[in-house]
Design brief:
The chain is of the alpha/beta class. The chain is built from eleven helices and nine strands. The chain has two domains: 142 residues, Rossmann fold, CATH 3.40.50; 109 residues, Rossmann fold (3-Layer(aba) Sandwich), CATH 3.40.50.1860. Helix 9 links the parallel strand 7 and strand 8. The chain binds D-glutamic acid. The site of D-glutamic acid has 17 residues, from helix 3.
Length: 258
């Protein structure tokens, strides 16, 4: 049985990478919806249809648990998927709670970067209104980052210029934490570290998701704990060039994401 990871494209590899480090004795499957990436600029109904189609394909594999390694897909489809399937399904959400906790003593603000659809959805708005009682959270959609990432363009001058332009309206000295609320964004971590003031922490949602995954699998006694790990790549259009790109992205993440 494999632990499956699903994203619109290569973004979820940032979560897979961490999972492979934490669970080195498990087998993994990674599925990218190459036919429909990006999700974050599409309508809720379209994304729900695409996610259901993709998970239908994944469910035909031998899978012990499914990680929706995509904040956008989680916010649109997780309840529906949990109604349809018996397997454990773990989602992602922007790490707003840990970010607010980090800043409690400094009184600094939190800036959440995510796709337009994630930021528009009620799941995100409810999360923020539940925990941000002091009004410390600001949000900034960055849809272009998904396109750059899909081209493996993650640390060029174009990216640096893009970030400078996006952050220009913000007084960054007011911020203590930037939340990467899209799984494509950790690919830009090394550029962000260069651009943002040293005092700003950069957090993503992988840790919470992977803790939940490990807990669920161990409760069900489904951790394989064997001598080696195997990884199977899949994508919705079956394009061999994209399978190769996913392998490259995993290697690239070692360099730019950690
Ligand atoms: N990686 C995804 C996320 O975490 C979605 C990116 C996209 O397809 O727009 O939100």
């Amino acid at each position: 049985m494999r632990i499956a990871f699903f994203d619109s494209g290569i973004g979820g590899i940032s979560v897979l990478h961490e999972a492979m480090k934490q669970l080195p004795h498990e087998d993994f499957l990674y599925f990218a919806d190459t036919l429909h990436v990006p999700y974050g600029t599409k309508s809720k109904d379209e994304v729900l249809t695409f996610v259901k189609q993709a998970v239908e394909t994944i469910s035909k594999e031998e899978v012990s648990a499914l990680v929706i390694a995509c904040n956008t897909a989680t916010s649109i489809a997780i309840s529906e998927l949990r109604r349809i399937y018996d397997m454990p399904i773990i989602g992602m959400e922007p790490a707003v709670k840990p970010a607010l906790a980090m800043n409690r003593s400094s009184g600094k603000r939190v800036l959440v970067l995510a796709t337009p659809l994630t930021l528009k959805e009620s799941k995100y708005r409810e999360l923020v209104s539940r925990i941000d009682d002091m009004g410390m959270v600001d949000s900034l959609p960055m849809p272009e980052l998904v396109q750059f990432c899909e081209q493996l363009n993650v640390d060029s001058q174009q990216i640096i210029d893009y970030f400078h332009a996006q952050f220009a309206p913000f007084d960054l000295s007011l911020y203590g934490t930037v939340v990467l609320g899209c799984t494509h964004y950790p690919f830009f971590r090394s550029v962000l570290k260069k651009i943002l003031p040293d005092s700003i922490h950069i957090v993503d949602g992988s840790a919470g998701t992977l803790n939940r995954l490990t807990q669920l699998l161990s409760d069900r006694d489904q951790l394989l704990g064997k001598g080696h790990s195997d990884l199977k790549w899949m994508c919705s259009d079956g394009n061999p060039a994209y399978l190769e790109k996913m392998r490259k992205a995993l290697q690239l993440f070692e360099v730019v994401g950690v």
